[in-house]
Write a sequence for this structure.
């Protein structure tokens, strides 16, 4: 794809090149760190941006310099005809990367098609390798489906990562077994600080498994753990166990140590633009589209909004008029 493209910068001099796009708030799991056991009040279909509306927004944003999109949810494949939407946006010549985050329960039938499309990478959410703990965390008995997807991804040509949210009293026993997946597999296992987005007010200040604690836990098992290059806009700090094929990462999602190089924006499942994970939404794209705004007008609004970005997640949280109590399934995981 062509590298001859414009790049837009925010008010802190950070390039904005990466869109995380939530296509649905619905999910077939009920993970404790993401939503209440009863679920959330899911959006009616008309509240979601249509695929045509999403394609239009993507075209505008790629004209402004977005070169990577990650499709998220909820569980993206809960939404019908998602594979056709991914196929369509893959024809956008200004998109260099299309990635996907999934819980893996519905992915298996689409892996070969995703290979044909040329999807860049898949992030597979997997918080435990124990079926009983999986059911406790997700409140659903879907472990076998996810493990099947894991093995199919290993056999495919699609690069993939495992994302694990580290939770006190839930999956601490799984940190080392998950890290051991990198011994013989060329993949990345990333451990994520729990965030306050479970639809019930989150973990607040009670987070115990911070970046440092996760790292020290790994170093206790792997004293020769090596720090490796993480990339200029990486959310994870990456490591390698000597003589292991894969690598490990830790994402300080609650400590927010990577904000200074953040190149990401989000559009959540109800069509709201978020220039930071911790803001409450800064632009109602759905309303603007349906009020008949032209592409030029929308482009101008995007440019203006990108110049109002908070310096980091803490500033974004301070600007909020409400507390952090959204579900990650609405925001987009």
């Amino acid at each position: 794809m062509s590298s001859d493209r414009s790049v837009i910068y925010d008010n802190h001099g950070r390039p904005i090149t990466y869109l995380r796009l939530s296509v649905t708030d619905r999910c077939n799991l009920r993970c404790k760190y993401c939503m209440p056991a009863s679920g959330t009040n899911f959006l009616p279909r008309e509240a979601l941006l249509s695929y045509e509306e999403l394609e239009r927004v993507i075209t505008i944003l790629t004209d402004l310099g977005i070169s990577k999109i990650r499709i998220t949810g909820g569980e993206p494949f809960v939404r019908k005809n998602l594979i056709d939407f991914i196929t369509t946006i893959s024809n956008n010549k200004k998109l260099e990367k299309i990635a996907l985050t999934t819980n893996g329960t519905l992915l298996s039938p689409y892996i070969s098609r995703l290979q044909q499309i040329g999807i860049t990478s898949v992030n597979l959410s997997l918080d435990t390798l124990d079926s009983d703990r999986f059911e406790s965390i997700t409140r659903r008995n879907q472990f076998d489906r996810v493990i099947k997807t894991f093995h199919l991804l290993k056999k495919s040509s699609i690069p993939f990562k495992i994302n694990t949210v580290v939770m006190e009293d839930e999956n601490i026993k799984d940190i080392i077994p998950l890290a051991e997946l990198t011994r013989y597999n060329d993949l990345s296992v990333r451990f994520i600080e729990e965030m306050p987005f479970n639809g019930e007010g989150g973990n607040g200040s009670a987070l115990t498994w911070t970046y440092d604690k996760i790292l020290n836990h790994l170093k206790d098992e792997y004293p020769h753990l090596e720090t490796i290059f993480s990339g200029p806009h990486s959310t994870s700090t990456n490591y390698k166990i000597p003589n292991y094929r894969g690598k490990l990462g830790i994402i300080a999602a609650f400590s927010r140590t990577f904000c200074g190089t953040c190149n990401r924006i989000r559009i959540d499942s109800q069509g709201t633009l978020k220039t930071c994970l911790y803001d409450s939404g800064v632009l109602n794209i759905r309303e603007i589209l349906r009020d008949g705004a032209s592409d030029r007008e929308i482009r101008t609004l995007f440019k203006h909004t990108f110049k109002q970005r908070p310096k980091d997640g803490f500033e974004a949280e301070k600007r909020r008029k409400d507390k952090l109590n959204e579900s990650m399934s609405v925001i987009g995981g």
About this structure: The radius of gyration is 19 Å. The mean pLDDT is 93.
